[in-house]
Design a protein that fits this description.
21 helices; 74% helix; single chain; mainly alpha
C-alpha cells in the first residue's frame, strides 16, 4: 500500500538532495495522490521563490511543468470569474455584444465559468440559467480556432445546449427543451459515448420523466450509466442509478427501484447528502409500497438525520414518508395529520406533483379505513383548490372529479387508486391521451390494457 510523502521528502526531491530510490518512489506517487500533489505544489512554489528549485531531466520536470500550468490555469479561471461578474450585470443582448467585441472574454475558462454558473442557478432561476447558457453557446464561435478544434467547439456547444434545454424543462417549456436537446445531439454526432453525451442523456431522461415517458427515460439513463461506468466516474454513475430508481418507482417497479437505489448507495460518496437521501427515500417508499413496513421504518430511521441537513422541500418529503409509514403501522390519526401537513406544504410551495401524490396516498388510507365522508371531503378540497390554480391542466381536475364520483356511487376499487397514482406520477404536467375514468382510457373498466414497463413488478 502506498504511503504518503512528507513535506521534508518533497523538499529534498525538488531541491536535489534526495536519493534516487526516493525520487523513483515519489514521482509516480505524486501523479495519483491529490493530497501529496497539493503539498508538492506548495513546496515547488516555495523553492521557486527562494531560488532553490532545481530543474531535472527525469519525471520531476513533468511534475514541475504540470504544477506551473495548473497555477496559470487557476489564474485564468480567477480572471474569467471576474469577467463574468461584469457580464452578469448586463442583459442577454448586451452580454453577446460584449463577448463579440472584447477579445479578453474569448477564452475557454470564461465558457467554463458561465456554464458552471448556469448549472448552479437552474433550479432557483431557470430563466437566468437559459440566458447564461445561450451566452456561453455564442462565446464558442469566438474562441480562437488555433487553440480550439471544431470537435472541441462542438462538444462545448452541446454542453451549453444541454444546460439551456434543462433550464427550459424546468420552466415547463417542453418543446423548447426538446429542440435544445436535439441541437445538442447534432453537435455530438462525432463525440458519441463521451461524458458530454452522458450528461445530455441524463437531462433528456428528466424531460421524458416530466412528460410521463418513464420507459424511454429508463433507457436513456441506462445508456448514460454505461458511459460513466466505462469512464470510471463512480459519483456520476451513482447519480444515474438514483435517476433510474426514480423512473422505476414511477413505473411501479418497486423491487427494481430498490435494487438500483441500493447500487447507487454503494457508489455515492458520503458528502453527496442530497443524492444519498434521495436514494434512501426511494428505498423507504418502495418498501412501504410493497407492504414491508418494518423494513421501511428501519430504513427511514437510518436516513432521518440527513433530512435535517437538507432544505424545506426534503423536510416535506420526510413528513410524507412518515405519514405513509404511520399508516402502515396502523396509526391512522397521526398519519392523517402528517399527510395534511405535507399536502399543505407542497401546495404552498407549488410542488404540485408531490401534493397530488400525497393527497392520493391519504385518500387511499381513508378508503381502506372505510372513512367515506372524509374521502369525499378530501376530493372536494382537491377539486376546489385545483380550480383556483392556473398552472394545472384541466384533466387533473376531471380525474379528481372521477374519484369523487366513484366514491359517492360506491364504485371505487383499490386498483382504481393504483392506476390514478400511476397517472398522476406520469401526467401531472402534461395531459394523457386517455385519462382515468374515461372511455378507452386503458384504466380499469375501460377494456384496454395500460402499457407496462418490461419486468415491471
Amino acid at each position: 500500500m502506498d504511503r504518503h510523502i512528507s513535506k521534508e521528502e518533497i523538499v529534498r526531491a525538488f531541491s536535489g538532495e534526495a536519493s534516487q530510490p526516493d525520487v523513483v518512489y515519489a514521482v509516480p506517487h505524486l501523479s495519483h495522490c491529490r493530497l501529496c500533489w497539493n503539498s508538492a505544489a506548495n513546496v515547488i512554489s516555495q523553492l521557486k521563490r527562494e531560488g532553490r528549485l532545481k530543474r531535472f531531466g527525469d519525471g520531476r520536470a513533468a511534475i514541475v511543468a504540470l504544477v506551473e500550468e495548473e497555477g496559470r490555469r487557476t489564474a485564468r479561471l480567477m480572471r474569467a470569474r471576474a469577467w463574468w461578474e461584469e457580464l452578469a450585470e448586463l442583459g442577454p443582448t448586451e452580454q453577446i455584444e460584449r463577448v463579440k467585441l472584447v477579445g479578453a472574454f474569448q477564452t475557454g475558462e470564461l465558457f467554463e465559468t458561465i456554464l458552471t454558473e448556469s448549472r448552479s442557478v437552474w433550479g432557483s432561476d431557470p430563466y437566468l440559467a437559459e440566458h447564461s447558457a445561450l451566452t456561453a453557446h455564442f462565446l464558442v464561435d469566438h474562441l480562437p480556432g488555433a487553440q480550439f478544434s471544431e470537435l472541441t467547439k462542438n462538444r462545448y456547444k452541446a454542453a451549453a445546449m444541454s444546460v439551456a434545454g434543462n433550464s427550459r424543462r424546468l420552466m415547463g417549456d417542453w418543446l423548447g427543451s426538446a429542440a435544445a436537446f436535439g441541437a445538442a445531439r447534432n453537435y455530438l454526432k462525432d463525440n458519441m459515448d463521451t461524458l458530454e453525451e452522458a450528461a445530455l442523456l441524463s437531462v433528456q431522461a428528466s424531460l421524458d420523466c416530466d412528460k410521463g415517458n418513464v420507459e424511454a427515460a429508463s433507457g436513456l439513463l441506462a445508456r448514460a450509466a454505461a458511459i460513466y461506468e466505462k469512464a470510471g466516474h463512480k459519483g456520476e454513475l451513482g447519480k444515474m442509478l438514483v435517476q433510474e430508481a426514480q423512473a422505476l418507482f414511477i413505473a411501479n417497479a418497486f423491487d427494481r427501484a430498490i435494487g438500483k437505489a441500493e447500487e447507487a448507495l454503494l457508489l455515492l460518496p458520503p458528502f453527496s447528502v442530497f443524492l444519498v437521501a434521495s436514494a434512501k427515500s426511494l428505498v423507504t417508499e418502495s418498501l412501504a409500497m410493497t407492504d414491508r413496513v418494518d423494513e421501511a421504518v428501519r430504513n427511514f430511521e437510518e436516513t432521518r438525520h440527513l433530512y435535517e441537513e437538507l432544505g424545506e422541500d426534503f423536510k416535506l418529503q420526510s413528513l410524507r414518508l412518515q405519514a405513509r409509514l404511520l399508516d402502515g403501522l396502523g396509526s391512522a390519526r397521526e398519519s392523517e395529520k402528517l399527510f395534511r401537513k405535507a399536502i399543505k406544504g407542497f401546495s404552498d410551495k407549488e410542488l404540485y406533483k408531490d401534493a397530488f401524490l400525497a393527497r392520493l396516498a391519504l385518500l387511499e388510507s381513508l378508503f381502506k379505513r372505510d372513512a367515506v365522508l372524509k374521502a369525499e371531503r378530501l376530493c372536494e378540497e382537491a377539486i376546489d383548490q385545483l380550480q383556483k390554480t392556473e398552472r394545472i391542466h384541466s384533466q387533473i381536475i376531471k380525474v379528481w372529479q372521477g374519484l369523487l364520483s366513484h366514491i359517492q356511487s360506491q364504485r371505487l376499487k383499490i386498483y382504481h387508486l393504483a392506476e390514478v397514482r400511476d397517472y398522476l406520477a406520469r401526467h401531472w404536467a402534461i395531459p394523457a391521451a386517455r385519462p382515468p375514468f374515461s372511455s378507452g382510457s386503458g384504466f380499469p373498466g375501460s377494456g384496454v390494457t395500460a402499457p407496462r414497463l418490461p419486468g415491471r413488478d
